[in-house]
């Protein structure tokens, strides 16, 4: 019975991994070979698209052209780095204290305010797009990287994740620190941050995976294509540039893959914590 279950799970795992194998194989194909496979789709030719998991004539030419002959790629890469780093730094500076305040302090309308946080977290970008646009336009931040960074930096989702971990800190531990003479700020720095580090790391991993792949926000707030992140690099690529598109997809995937593998344990903890109802 176990072997049957393993075979079934292995089959579905292969299906889930196929897009990655598809990208890796396509990035190692030459232009003519890849064009022959994808012409029915990208060139509106007859028949159906076909594909091989193993290139007939493997080559690294696509990676060489992408990394050495495509200056636009590096501009968009560093735009992605700036946007992602700015958003994550903002979430640390604003989200961590907010989560600690919700978890450890009582204040009027706390429940109502936290409900608003959860409601905002559940709203898709399309709902808040107009309000964000109007505010950013009045602040004169449109068509700058800040137009993407600031709304993301004050996202409510990381607050919700970190809040779950901070509430898990035993109250007796906090009270012991107060009895020993520690102030609230000292408790937060020397007790809350170390014990809640799992939630913070989990929120940062989830935040990176989201920010690295932003599409709608840059398209809405950035009209200057020189400010676009790497996630918008691929829509401008056609059949002739298909190998570069596959290579770029693989390169874009690598940072997210490394972050995911490095923070997988924290990520699983965050998903479990987020699933617990208030």
From TrEMBL:
It is found in: Cell membrane. Keywords: Cell membrane, Membrane, Transmembrane, Transmembrane helix, Transport. CDD domains: TM_PBP2. Its main location: membrane. Residues 77-263 form the ABC transmembrane type-1 domain. The chain crosses the membrane at residues 75-100, 112-133, 145-166, 187-209, 237-261. Coiled coil: none annotated. The keyword GTP-binding does not apply. It is a multi-pass membrane protein. InterPro entries: MetI-like (IPR000515), MetI-like_sf (IPR035906). Belongs to the binding-protein-dependent transport system permease family. This is Carbohydrate ABC transporter permease. It comes from Blautia caccae.
